Amino acid sequence: MEVTVGVIGLGNVGLGTLEILTENARSIHGKLGFALNVKAVCSRNVQQKKLPALTEPLLRATDWREVVCDPEIDIVVEAVGGTGTAFHIIEEALRQRKSVVTANKELMALRGADLWALANQNGVNLAMEASVAGGIPIHTVLREGIAGDRIVELYGILNGTSNFILTEIEKSNANFESVLSEAQQLGYAEADPSADIDGLDARSKLAILAALAFGEKLTTGGIYTEGIRRIMPVDFEYAHQLKHTIRLLCLARQSEQGLLLSVRPSLIPQSAILAQVKGAYNAIWIRGAYGEDTFYYGRGAGSKPTGVAIVSDLMRVAREIRFGSPERVSPFAYDRLGEYKPLPIQTQKLPYYLRFRVEDKAGIIATLATVLAKHQIGIDAVLQLPREDWRDLPFVITTEPAPEQAIRDALVEIREADFLVEAPFAMPMERGF
Fold first, then answer.
1. Which CATH architecture has domain 138-299?
2. What's the rounded Cα separation, in Å, for the pair 266 and 228?
3. pTM for the full model?
4. Per-residue pLDDT tens for 333-351?
5. Is 278 among the catalytic positions?
6. One of 39, 98, 105, 205 is an active-site residue; which one?
7. CA Rg, the chain, in Å?
8. Domain 346-428: what homologous superfamily?
9. What phi, psi does 123 have (nearest 5°)?
10. Where are the beta strands (DSSP E) in 80-158?
């Protein structure tokens, strides 16, 4: 007996999924013991799409309701994206008692727990492995692979576009704007790159992973987020002097006080394995209370890696349909998610990297030291590379571990100084590696 699939959305992810299902059909059949067949595809311009040689007869629909309401379809793949139409597709499919596979990180971060409750009510499944780090089966790891552990920390590089930009700046010493343009030409960055470079894409992924790791019902609005727009080549020069590098780091840290979440550019030691993650790759480092450190690395995006995750989910759900699985594991790992009480980022206590661009005048260091001392922030080092333009001299102060609130208060006061070319720039120096 075959299990039938309907694919809604024929962009890169949808087409990549169809290609894998077609070209890898024999291997999939061999692993399942039965066929996994595509019976319907849907896109507004479906007639213009060049599709793989799929099994006929095949429904080619322009209205997603034709697929969702088709009694012959067992599993719906939502590859539309966004939080509008995609939500209605998934909601209606679950109400029609069809299992759903999705790669939609934004929607799963926003409404995933509610949709899983609806899936449970209707006795079907909701699978979302492809929503985070497409080429890395990190959901399965957290949901089943290390489920016996208690996670205490999670660090991730979860946006390939930002990681490509940062590692290209580091390698070529080019400015942010030129590397962003290169990323757009290569197809890594969209025409509007805001979701990637402002940390919003990574924030959605972190919300999903943190729910899996810690059993909290999260909203993206509770996650402190900064992007990478202010990173300059000189920041890497100073970071290297400190034996560090810079990555857009997603952090989830559990303590007795609560759960702290953030997405922000951070300095990490060059000796850390995350420092070796370059280009458009993703990585997740998980620290457990008992199993200690595990590390996961791979392609985070692209039609084929994401397609592999979708097809793997399809196979898992198809087995459930074919053989039954009364004790299904929640896609969020926990039977019921608790209510998240965020730990304010201001309570974080770390060393900080403070970069200043100034017009050279006498007494600058003394002024900065006075303000930092006023806020009980100790100076660890002052670094200044030679520069010819005295009207725009960048230099760096690294601090002793200090509460972020103290750093913020000090920088607000420093921002009024007449020698600054631009507002000071701060990054935490992570020590947990």
1. 2-Layer Sandwich (3.30)
2. 10
3. 0.88
4. 555 556 666 788 998 999 9
5. no
6. 205
7. 24
8. ACT domain (3.30.70.260)
9. 70, 30
10. 99-102, 126-127, 151-157
